[in-house]
């Protein structure tokens, strides 16, 4: 039995069918789709006033990561992170009330481990320790100091450990990859990056339309200006190179594909990160989800046309002799997998 849609297509004059398609696939359809997404997102995201355990856990992970970055900084600064520490203590207290099983959660244990490293690293700096003690319950601090370093905080590895990357099985390469934010001072060239970019070209995309566009920025002044707008590497040395991934929306064919560029370029980005790792090159992805002002400034600085969506930056450089980075503990797979039988 024909659907109503098929019946109309068969009975209406072709010009009227074509006009209907233009209306349904036009600007009103795009607006309505975006409004539906905005409503769903607004109800779900981890805003300041969120009370759900999932949102509170996300905020806890975010503040933990802020402190991990300070712990991994080459130029370690005693007493850093007072605001993130305060935010973390508050959200951990709220999370304990929202989730009775908080002690079993990887994110909570990671937060504890990070606080524990903070305390250990500040041994002898009584003023800073007093501040921490004013935020967290004494029993939490005692427990935190005994949690293993693999659960949260910082970790270190050497450049020599990366020399065999090209020979590692995929699973081992993937598990050993970590983002770094401080690179060797040695310049990096396009020729050194090209093999990784070419490898990432094997990334699948919707109907092979390949929307990803790659800009490799090697000019130090431009990199500094771009990262000043982005803000994610404040306090770190300028990386030798910065890659920007965008999605060219001209390859898409209907309003319902308006987010597809983020999916396709995101897939490309992950492949590129792993390809760089295989080449023995360090990297760190940085988001480009900007408000209007920073986006406009970024487009003007880098000459990004309106038909392209900003997807992500990747800071790139050679590994330094010794690297320290964030543990960034991952959830167990069973926490995110739903089986539909």
From TrEMBL:
It holds the Pfam family Nitroreductase. It comes from the Bacteria. Residues 176-226, 240-318 form the Nitroreductase domain. One of its GO terms (molecular function) is oxidoreductase activity. Keywords: Flavoprotein, FMN, Oxidoreductase. Gene3D superfamilies: NADH Oxidase (3.40.109.10). PANTHER family: IODOTYROSINE DEIODINASE 1, NADPH NITROREDUCTASE. This is Nitroreductase. The lineage of its organism: Bacteria, Bacillati, Actinomycetota, Actinomycetes, Bifidobacteriales.
């Amino acid at each position: 039995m024909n659907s109503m849609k098929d019946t109309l297509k068969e009975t209406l004059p072709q010009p009227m069918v074509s006009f209907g398609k233009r209306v349904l696939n036009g600007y009103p359809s795009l607006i309505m789709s975006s409004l539906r997404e905005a409503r769903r997102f607004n109800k779900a995201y981890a805003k300041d006033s969120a009370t759900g355990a999932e949102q509170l856990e996300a905020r806890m992970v975010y503040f933990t990561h802020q402190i991990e970055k300070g712990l991994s900084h080459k130029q370690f600064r005693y007493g850093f992170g007072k605001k993130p520490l305060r935010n973390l203590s508050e959200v951990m207290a709220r999370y304990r009330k929202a989730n009775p099983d908080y002690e079993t959660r990887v994110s909570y244990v990671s937060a504890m481990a990070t606080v524990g490293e903070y305390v250990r690293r500040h041994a002898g700096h009584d003023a800073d320790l007093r501040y921490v003690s004013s935020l967290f319950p004494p029993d939490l601090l005692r427990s935190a100091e005994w949690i293993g370093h693999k659960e949260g905080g910082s970790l270190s590895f050497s450049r020599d450990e990366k020399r065999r990357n090209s020979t590692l099985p995929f699973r081992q390469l993937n598990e050993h990859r970590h983002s770094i934010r401080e690179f060797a001072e040695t310049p990096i060239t396009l020729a050194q990056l090209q093999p990784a970019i070419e490898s990432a070209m094997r990334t699948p995309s919707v109907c092979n339309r390949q929307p990803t566009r790659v800009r490799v920025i090697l000019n130090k002044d431009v990199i500094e200006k771009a990262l000043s707008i982005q803000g994610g590497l404040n306090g770190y040395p300028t990386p030798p190179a910065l890659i920007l991934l965008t999605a060219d929306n001209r390859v898409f064919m209907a309003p319902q594909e308006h987010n597809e560029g983020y999916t396709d370029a995101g897939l490309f980005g992950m492949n590129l990160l792993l390809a760089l790792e295989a080449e023995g090159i360090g990297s760190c992805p940085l988001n480009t989800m900007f408000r209007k002002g920073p986006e406009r400034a970024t487009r003007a600085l880098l000459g990004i046309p309106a038909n392209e969506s900003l997807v992500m930056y990747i800071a790139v450089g050679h590994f330094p002799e010794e690297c320290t980075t964030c543990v960034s503990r991952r959830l167990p797979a069973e926490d995110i997998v739903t089986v539909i039988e």
